[in-house]
Amino acid sequence: MDKKYIIGIDLGGTKISGAIADMDGSILNKITIPTLAGKGALTVVGRIADTIIKLMESRSASYGEVSGIGIGSPGFVNSKKGYIAFASNLSGFNNLPIVDMIEERLKIKTYLENDAKAAALGEMWFGAGGNCSNFIYLTVSTGIGGAIVYNGDIFTGSSNMAGEIGHTILNPEGPKCGCGHNGCLEAYASGTAIARLANERLKECEDSLLKEYDNITSKEVFDAASRGDKLASDVVDYSLHYLGIGIANLVTLINPERIIIGGGVSMAGQIIIDKVWEEVKANSFKPMYENLSIVPAKLKADAGVIGALGVVLTRSKGKR
Ligand code: ADP
Ligand code: ZN
In the list 67, 97, 152, 224, which could disulfide-bond 319, CB 3.0-4.6 Å? Predict the structure, then answer.
């Protein structure tokens, strides 16, 4: 039967988003439902399967017409064997063979990838990665995730874990990271870290625009910095200094063609790109960065599902 559709699922700790698209990845319909992660892995997998069926029904698509399903999941996933190894915000999902479970129920070829790695493939097909097959993608969000894209697919490493850029250590005597180590890039420059640093410094500061807010996130810190607030500007400089050093190390190590920066914190805009460039120039080597471009991610709201569609396109058609 002629294949007409692909389906992308973005599995998150709070919501499941799905999209059905044509074979080029143009989205035809989208659905978002709560994950209900507390009800357990079996329920959640059932909700994913139900979402896929609803998406198919919305286009009167038969099972035979769907070429593949892509699932982007948080946490450590084994994309080759198709299981979620560990996801900190999906408890009870350890070693969950989600690909077998979906394929058994729906009889449609299914692909699994970590959500940040899926987003990188989404950027490659539909975003800031156009015409580029060797790049590094970072998502600066609640944490810092990433992917190394090498010759048009994810560089996996020996056990499928390569690209954990957020947990590269910049200072072993540095602040505690959620992973248990000290001084990871994520502990300096994630949205969570920026908010934590601002809150810590605020305790010893009388005079800051940040005193106006009950709840400070990295967004308020960037906003206050753009209004000239000293404390907020210092925190932004400090965090982006480390982000830039982390990226300079990647430039020296990998010599990529392009670096794409996405995630919620990247919404702060051009200041991120400018500060990162400053540090790359100061801490890497000209022959390594003279052909480099550092750009913001293009995919915003639907980055998760578009990434999941990118996984199907990458894995089912072979490399770009
Ligand atoms: P998630 O981590 O769940 O994938 P996001 O990619 O949206 O979610 O990232 C959320 C983080 O981005 C939060 O720390 C939030 O404070 C931060 N953030 C969102 N918008 C902005 C902004 N305009 N400027 C700076 N930080 C922002
Ligand atoms: Zn860490």
Answer: 152
